[in-house]
Fold:
Amino acid sequence: MPEGHTVHRIAALFREVFLNQSILASSPQGRFRDGAALISGSVLERAEARGKQLFLHFESDRIVRVHLGIYGAWDVMTLQGDSVRAGSAQTLSLGAPRASRRRLGEREESFDADEPFPPAPRGAVRLRLETSEVVADLRGPTACEVHTPEEAASVVARLGPDPLLDTGIRGQREFVKRVSSTSRPIGVVLMDQAVVSGIGNVYRAEILFRHLLDPFRPASTLPEEVLVDLWKDWSGLLADGVKTGVMLTRNDLDSAGRKRALRVAKDRYFVYKREGLPCRVCGTHVQMALMATRKLYFCPQCQISGKASS
DNA sequence: TCACAATGAACAA
DNA sequence: TGTTCCTTGTGAC
Structure:
């Protein structure tokens, strides 16, 4: 996934292309046929992200909640250039108009494709949202459901603060309170969406490294100033991820290195998926351990044994 | 062709 | 703690 930054980008893109428009909804795959029928033809009134959850508010108090899970993705295709003309039957009969695709999910890409618009669904499309100029295909989500406002509210109520929504001191206080009230390992707690929204397996490992924290240390033993730093760091990383579409967590790069890392995934991280490779700071081999059923990467020197006994 | 991993989380026991 | 679900791309054969 699609960690928190991806979902905020999707919400922003949907506001850009779908807001206040009547949307055709369908489920080419069939597994969301009833839900799609409930909303099809109605106007999208709001599109919002909270952590990893996307909420699409349609008329008549119908809210579609989408959670991409570990490999869900949206494929968004828009007509380019003379979009209105290109979409007309007359132009279509002349040949395929040019479409632009943008995928937002486990990997983002954009490319041009010479194919008719709207393109035929490829693969298992759970939900297709469509106007005359834009098609968005959803594949592989963990959750895609139509909610009442009450049901949506109860989902939101179970989520920890999101730095993009809970700005200022309130979000920070809520984060500090929720983290410090549990003795579970900080590496587990950062992944818990009831504690803080939007952090996934990549950001978890990278944030812990950036603060030279032992992932196994009980959260309740961390000083408040460390927790404040963690919150501020997550806020900055999330904002940066939303802006660039990339999880670039290294803060040891010059501008050329940063530019390269935006292109090359292997250059983006301190420890994530770098098991056995030398730590970028101390050269010790990065280790991997399972934590909260997920692969956790860390530097045993920087984060555990090498730390001053503070 | 096939096994497997992947940025996630709900559920059972 | 372990199992299950969702889908696709990759890399080994």
Q: What stands out?
A: Residues 1-3, 6, 52, 67-72, 105-107, 142-143, 191, 193, 200-203, 247, 272, 293-295 of chain A lie near DNA strand B (CB under 10 Å from a C1'). Confidence is low (pLDDT under 50) at residues 81-98 of chain A. The radius of gyration of chain A is 21 Å.
